[in-house]
């Protein structure tokens, strides 16, 4: 899953740790989400969106694989 979490987090002048603390996850979780190595639950996606004042469409999208 591709995302713009890092860009939105930086717009709000938050560190990974600050965002993690505010939504109740670890800094490592935020790091993995930003790198696209962890697919968060819908509940976690919504928490991130709410904290960063963005929509799901603004922050997350799926990239179709070409077969």
Explain this structure to me?
The chain is mostly helical and 67 residues long. It has one domain (2-56): Orthogonal Bundle (434 Repressor (Amino-terminal Domain)), CATH 1.10.260.40. The protein is 57% helix and 6% strand. It has helices spanning 5-11, 16-23, 27-34, 42-52, 56-59; strands spanning 2-3, 60-61. α2 packs across α3. It is globular and about 30 Å long. The model has no long low-confidence stretch (mean pLDDT 94).
The overall pLDDT, averaged over residues, is 94
Structural class: mainly alpha
In DSSP terms (H or I, runs of 4 or more residues), the helix count works out at 5
Helix content: 55-70%
Number of domains: 1
Which CATH architecture?
A: Orthogonal Bundle
CATH-defined superfamily: lambda repressor-like DNA-binding domains
Q: Specify Rg, calculated over alpha carbons.
A: 11 Å
Main sheet: strands, sense, barrel:
2 strands, antiparallel
CATH topology: 434 Repressor (Amino-terminal Domain)
Using the coordinates above, name the CATH class. Mainly Alpha
Number of strands: 2
**Percent range for β-strand residues:** 5-15%
**Straight-line distance between termini:** 17 Å
The global form is globular
